[in-house]
Amino acid sequence: MSFTQLEHTFTPLKFELEKTDPASRARAGKITTDHGEIQTPIFMPVGTVASVKGVHQRELEDDINAQIILGNTYHLYLKPGIDILEQAGGLHQFMNWNGPILTDSGGYQVYSLSNNRKITEEGVNFQSHSDGSRHFFTPELAIDIQKSIGGDIIMAFDECTPYPCDLKYATDSMHMTHRWLKRCCEHMDKTQGKYGYEQALFPIVQGSVYPELRKQSAEAIASADRFGNAIGGLSVGEENNLMYDITGHTAPLLPANKPRYLMGVGTPEDLLKCSSMGVDMFDCVMPTRHARTGSLFVKAGKINIKNSQFKTDPDPIDPDCSCYTCLNYSKAYLRHLIMAGEILAMHLLTVHNSTFYQQWMVSIRKAIADDTPFNMEWSDC
User: Fold this and answer.
1) Catalytic: which of 63, 104, 152, 270?
2) ∠135-139-144 over CA atoms, to 5°?
3) How far apart are alpha carbons 278 and 230 in whole angstroms?
4) Does the predicted TM-score (pTM) go above 0.90?
5) 283 an active-site residue?
6) To 10 degrees, what angle do helices 268-275 and 343-369 make?
7) Is 56 helix (H, G, I), strand (E, B) or coil?
């Protein structure tokens, strides 16, 4: 399959590989976009509907130190709708976020609507989860929507295969994803961006848990010669060790001079192990979703603030954490808030978890820079 790439209107984004760990495949680098720099490896908070749940943009930028956030194409397409986003000048302006944004293509959400969608060669017909209305996404429309949203990095439309699936299904799905990628590339190159800055397309490797398919897919998407590449179709129900095996097999097959993004992963341990395999970018709803149920990430693992042992605990969640929550509130107070159903609890706990994830990635980058990577430990206790 050949991919024809037309000249870009804007100055292309840049990726600089600054350090590679001699004892593993871990890499430290820098992505430069028109909305700022991103130090890799990086974790991207998920801003599903133009907000990272539970925190506002000032905290994301100034306190949590998020360098890039993710916007969800499926949800933003439904609400507030593309017309409103275009009227505002794109998602950056609409939500008052000055940093880079990555948008997914909607493929994963379509995958999650398995009972309410039909996949054909042309695209996907699906029913909205919110009001039951019918919609039809094609690769071309997915590109148009993401250009209207205004992400700095946008994703190719793909089918996220379910787990488990048999070899034939995975093979047929992978080849369709590659055909859709060709259409995405052609449409990306012949249509202009809307807001005067560069937008870069990432193709996505599929192939389920079959190593040979992953190899074929990695070679196919690399031939598109885009700014970066992603690994999709993992963390969809398979065991962690299998996810690690497929990631470790796939990441080194992708071009070393381009950023590699592992979609929808995961725990601090996942970020640590997959960074050692050469992955540069991650996203997951885990830190924000867990915070809303009182589950908090600390260096020793994870704690549930609802546990009775914290009822009179005067200490912060983590004495080494520099987040606003840990600097100002005790575990006893935070437990009281969440047990009382107070909305402030979800906010303060989300600030902590989001900050922990960013500080965790800083630690990983520092370990790579110091030639002592991955001597950190974390367990989901």
Assistant:
1) 104
2) 80
3) 12
4) yes
5) yes
6) 20
7) coil
CA distances from 298 to 119, 197, 320, 323, 343 (A): 42, 38, 9, 12, 22
Kindly give the pairing relationship between strand 101-103 and strand 69-71.
Answer: parallel
Whether 104 sits among the annotated catalytic residues: the reply is yes
Res 3 pLDDT > 50: no
Residue 99 zone, left/alpha/beta (φ > 0; ψ -120 to 50; rest):
beta
Say how many C-beta atoms besides its own lie within 10 A of residue 256's C-beta.
12
- List, in sequence order, every residue forming a beta bridge with 153; answer none if it has no partner: 102, 200
Of the candidates 158, 270, 280, 283, the residue annotated as catalytic is 283
Whether 348 and 337 have beta carbons less than 8 Å apart is answered as: yes
| Domains located in the chain, CATH noted | 15-284 (3.20.20.105), 292-381 (no CATH)
The 10s digit of each residue's pLDDT in 339-362 is 999 999 999 999 999 999 999 999
E strand map for the chain: 14-20, 27-33, 36-40, 42-44, 46-47, 69-71, 101-103, 117-119, 124-127, 134-137, 153-155, 200-202, 204-205, 229-231, 260-262, 281-283, 295-298, 301-304
Which pLDDT tens digit goes with each residue over 163-196?
999 999 999 999 999 999 999 999 999 999 999 9
Give dist(CA 331, CA 309) in Å, integer.
10
Q: Return the DSSP state at 10.
A: S
